[in-house]
Each structure stands twice: as structure tokens, then as C-alpha cells.
Design brief:
heterodimer; A: alpha/beta; Rossmann fold; Alpha-Beta Plaits; 6-stranded mixed beta sheet; 27% strand; B: 2 domains; 6 helices; 9 strands; 30% helix; 26% strand; globular
Chain lengths: 297, 220
């Protein structure tokens, strides 16, 4: 279990975390979302016992991360945002190094991380810096799992990782949760957030939302519409939407334009196309929440 | 005439074939999306187009010198935003007046004013990527190559980056862009999907896949 109570953190005059409190239960995945610069990596550093310079309290598996840091640390598997591997060691040597640091057996990885190790085992003798981005991240997760931690901290593990490898990683994350591991994972992918038990939405160091994906989607306050949009239509459509009464915001969504509107929006055809009511997704909530706090682009 | 013409290009590293008999073209104002799994050969192909790697076989012709934004960005971390712009403008051969005009336009369009004197290593990643983008286009290249420009960006910064890309294409620049976000495939005028070093599909996004998930069939 991860428990954070009133965590605040300053870098000089800049407050990067403000009174952050939450819990990740055993056998639970919490997705940490927020804009670039929201404080996500700072929070990871603190929870991983790497930064004691904060106010508030936190514990990992019941051990205080300040006063019982050693006990807390051996229960944590941490994959930081930047690669934590030794580029000039092979896949097998990296794993042996991390296993050795914890006094564990590297061969146990086969049981501890079956999904990820399966795709890595053929590359055992490859140097880590010759692996593709996706493979590096899989190896980093394996190295963080080799001591069988009860808490897993993953800081944007799927950045630069292709959709198929992302699927493999989330299979593993799901299996770890089912084994009882508490997982805190930051991501910008809405499909990953939707796979989590709860979403913690951090904005400028503060918790804005902390709820299940369904609860967060249910909190959507506006009306959402969708309109087909090819790249060539874009300038005409944007010009029309800019002056449309009741339109609060609009943004591209794959081959559609999503339109956020209030009750005064008439819903009639725009540039010859009728807007269709749409169900909001996590990414719509994310954009909506942030746009209200940012000048419109 | 096409800005980029690639015909039957291959590249091997030892006995590993990274790019295998790839042909493609890029016209003025086009956004060509490059999709594929990690290791499919996208970055190797991009590095050959930028003349950073020599192909083992086949031909590549590119008009002018392409602007290139790589995955790791080439910003000088220790320098400020202002100093990075000056540094790259000088490398691109711009004179003082041109540099000043370009910097003013960039700072206004990217809302960089509050960060001008901040060291690049202290910039939030959304701004850092926007700055890398502007530096890639500082000399007005006819061709722009972007290797995963939205990787690690939040949903708003991602859309902001795509506005910059589309504005550039509307002015006639030909853009080649790789991405792992399947929704972004639809922001491209054409797609080339790679698997195991080969082109496995190419065409208009809507014709290749009715839904985002359909793209994955080409990855496997």
C-alpha cells in the first residue's frame, strides 16, 4: 500500500506539490495524469525515498519513507522517467546487477514478470543501448521487479513505446495488480488510464480529481459533440466554430473534431455537417479540465 | 516535382536488415505519417533522409536541407531559450536582423516570453518540444522531418504541436512525421506503415483503417 498525507514540496520560490494526499491500496492500479510540469515526477521521487526534502508524510507498505526508508525501499520497484539501465551491459547483465543489489536471484524474473521477460529472453546477450525504446522500457520494468516488490512506481513507462508493446506492458501491470501489488503509474495515454482502478489527476501540484474512470467520466459538466474532420477541412471548420454561439472549446480527435458546448448550442449543421452527440472519454475530461484553467489556444 | 523521392532503399547493421527495399515520395504541403512498432525501421529511414546515415542500396533525393527534430532533441541544455535560438540561427547562417525577426515571430507564436531567459533543462517538456520544433524550421527548410515529436506530451501540448505542424504544411512545407499515437495518424495527409524494415501499407488514413485499432493489424 502507498499512503501519502499532505505532501508539499518547493523548489525555491516555486511550489511544485501542494498538500497531496491519497492512497493506493493493495491490488490496485492508480494512474497519475497531469500536464507536463504538473509535479508527477517530483511526487515519484519523493515516494521512491529519493528526496527527503518535503513536508507531510508518506508510507510504503506501512513503513514511513523518512524514518524507515530502508524497509520502505526494499518493498518498492521504481522505474524513473529516464532510462535507468546500464547501456554497456547486456540484458542479462543488467538484470543480474539489479538482482545482486537486492540479494535476489535473477532467474526468478521468469516467474515475476512472465509477459515482459518472454519478449526479452531472446535478447539476453544484447547490450541494453542497442535495444529499441520499447525493449529498453520492458527491461527497466523487469529490473524493477526482480526483488518481488509489493509497490510499483512507474514514471511514464510507455513514452515512445509502440501500441503493441504497450499492450504487453499493461498485461503485466494487470497481472501484478492481481497478485496484490500496489501500482502507481503516470501516463498520457487515455486508454491506459481507462485500464486503471482509479485516476489521480494532478494540476500545478494539486489533486484536482481522484476517482474511478467511470466516476471521472460521470463528472463531465458540458455537452460534447463530434464532427467528421479531414485535415483539408480544418481551417474552414475552425473559423466557423470560433463564432458559433454556445461553443466553449473544440479540438481534433483522430478523424473527428470534438466540440464542447453549453446549453445554448443549437446543434444545427456547421459547414454542412451535423454535429453528433458524443460520449466523453478520459482525454476529453483532461482537456476540458485543463482548458478551463488555461487561456484558449 | 516531389520534395523527397526514395526508391528501393535498404540499410543493414551487421546481419540485421533495418530498412528493406523502401520507396516513397513527399510532395509540397503534404504531411506523411510514418507508423510502425519499435524497431520497424522508422528512425533508420529518417536518419537516411537527413543524410546522417548512408543507404546500402537504392536512391534518396531531397530538395534542400531538411529541418530535423530528433527524439532526443538537439537543444543545448545549459543554454537559455534565447541563447539556443541565437546559436541555431547562427549555425543556419542567418544574419543578425534575420535572427531577431525570426526570434520575435517564434516567441510570439509559441508564447515563450516567460521562458526566454530560462535554461532549457528547466523547461517543461511541452515547451521544450515546441522550441525544438521552431529550431528545426529556423532556416525555412522545404522539408521537415519529425521523429516522434509528441512523445511524452500531455493531451493539450500534443494538439498544440499538431497545430504548429499543420500551419507549416499549409505554407507548403513537406513534412514527414513518426508517431505512436494512433489518433494522430488521421492528422496526416498520407501514411506509410512499416514492419520489419519494409513498407507494409501506404495510403490515405481513412482508406487504411476505419478505426484507430485497425492500424494495429499492420503492426503484427
Amino acid at each position: 500500500m502507498i499512503a501519502a498525507r499532505g505532501i508539499s514540496k518547493r523548489f525555491g520560490p516555486r511550489q511544485v506539490l501542494k498538500d497531496v494526499s491519497f492512497q493506493v491500496e493493495d491490488a490496485q492500479i492508480v494512474a497519475l495524469m497531469g500536464a507536463n510540469g504538473a509535479g508527477k515526477s517530483t511526487l515519484f521521487n519523493i515516494l521512491a525515498t529519493l528526496d527527503p526534502d518535503f513536508t507531510g508524510e508518506a508510507s510504503i507498505g506501512g513503513f514511513d519513507i523518512r524514518t524507515q526508508a530502508r524497509d520502505a525501499r526494499c518493498r518498492i520497484g521504481y522505474v524513473p522517467g529516464r532510462f535507468s539501465l546500464y547501456g554497456d551491459l547486456t540484458v542479462a547483465e543488467n538484470l543480474a546487477f539489479f538482482a545482486g543489489a537486492y540479494g535476489c536471484n535473477a532467474a526468478d524474473i521468469e516467474q515475476l514478470s512472465p509477459y515482459l521477460w518472454r519478449s526479452l529472453v531472446g535478447f539476453s546477450d544484447f547490450r541494453a543501448d542497442t535495444l529499441s525504446g520499447g525493449m529498453k522500457q520492458k527491461l527497466a520494468i523487469c529490473c524493477a521487479l526482480v526483488h518481488n516488490p509489493s509497490v510499483l512506481l512507474l514514471d511514464e513507462p510507455t513514452v515512445g513505446v509502440d501500441p503493441v508493446s504497450r499492450h504487453d506492458m499493461w498485461q503485466e501491470i494487470g497481472a501484478l495488480r492481481d497478485k496484490g501489488v500496489s501500482v502507481l503509474v503516470s501516463t498520457h495515454y487515455l486508454d491506459e488510464a481507462a485500464l486503471s482502478d482509479k485516476i489521480l489527476f494532478l494540476h500545478q501540484g494539486e489533486i484536482l480529481l481522484f476517482d474511478s474512470p467511470a466516476g471521472i467520466i460521470g463528472s463531465y459538466q458540458h455537452r460534447l459533440f463530434s464532427l467528421p474532420c479531414q485535415p483539408a477541412d480544418l481551417p474552414r471548420l475552425e473559423a466557423a466554430l470560433a463564432t458559433e454561439p454556445g461553443v466553449l472549446d473544440y479540438y481534433l480527435w483522430g478523424d473527428q473534431m470534438h466540440i464542447t458546448a453549453d446549453n445554448t448550442f443549437h446543434g444545427a449543421a456547421i459547414c454542412g455537417k451535423i454535429p453528433v452527440p458524443a460520449e466523453p472519454d478520459i482525454e476529453d475530461i483532461f482537456i476540458d479540465t485543463l482548458s478551463e484553467r488555461r487561456p484558449r489556444v | 516535382m516531389n520534395l523527397v523521392e526514395i526508391s528501393h532503399v535498404s540499410k543493414c547493421f551487421g546481419d540485421f536488415t533495418a530498412v528493406n527495399d523502401v520507396s516513397l515520395t513527399l510532395a509540397k504541403g503534404e504531411i506523411l505519417g510514418l507508423l510502425g512498432a519499435n524497431g520497424a525501421g522508422k528512425t533508420t529511414l529518417i536518419r537516411m533522409i537527413c543524410d546522417l546515415l548512408r543507404p546500402d542500396g537504392g536512391q534518396i533525393s531531397v530538395q534542400g536541407r531538411p529541418g530535423y527534430m530528433c527524439q532526443t532533441f538537439s537543444l543545448v541544455e545549459e543554454l537559455t531559450v534565447h541563447e539556443n535560438i541565437r546559436f541555431y540561427a547562427t549555425l543556419a547562417g542567418l544574419d543578425r536582423a534575420q535572427t531577431a525577426a525570426r526570434e520575435e515571430a517564434m516567441v510570439a507564436s509559441l508564447e515563450l516570453t516567460p521562458y526566454l531567459n530560462r535554461q532549457v533543462k528547466l523547461l517543461p517538456s511541452g515547451w521544450r518540444q515546441a522550441l525544438s520544433f521552431s529550431i528545426a524550421v529556423i532556416a525555412d527548410p522545404p522539408v521537415l522531418i519529425l521523429d516522434e515529436p509528441t512523445s511524452g506530451l500531455d493531451a493539450l501540448s500534443r494538439r498544440r504541436m499538431w497545430k504548429l505542424i499543420q500551419a507549416r504544411a499549409a505554407e507548403g512545407t513537406g513534412v514527414i512525421v513518426s508517431t505512436h499515437y494512433l489518433d494522430e495518424a488521421y492528422y496526416c495527409s498520407r501514411l506509410t506503415i512499416m514492419n520489419g524494415g519494409r513498407v507494409v501499407a501506404s495510403g490515405v488514413p481513412q482508406e487504411l483503417a476505419a478505426t484507430q485499432q485497425d492500424f494495429l493489424t499492420y503492426f503484427r
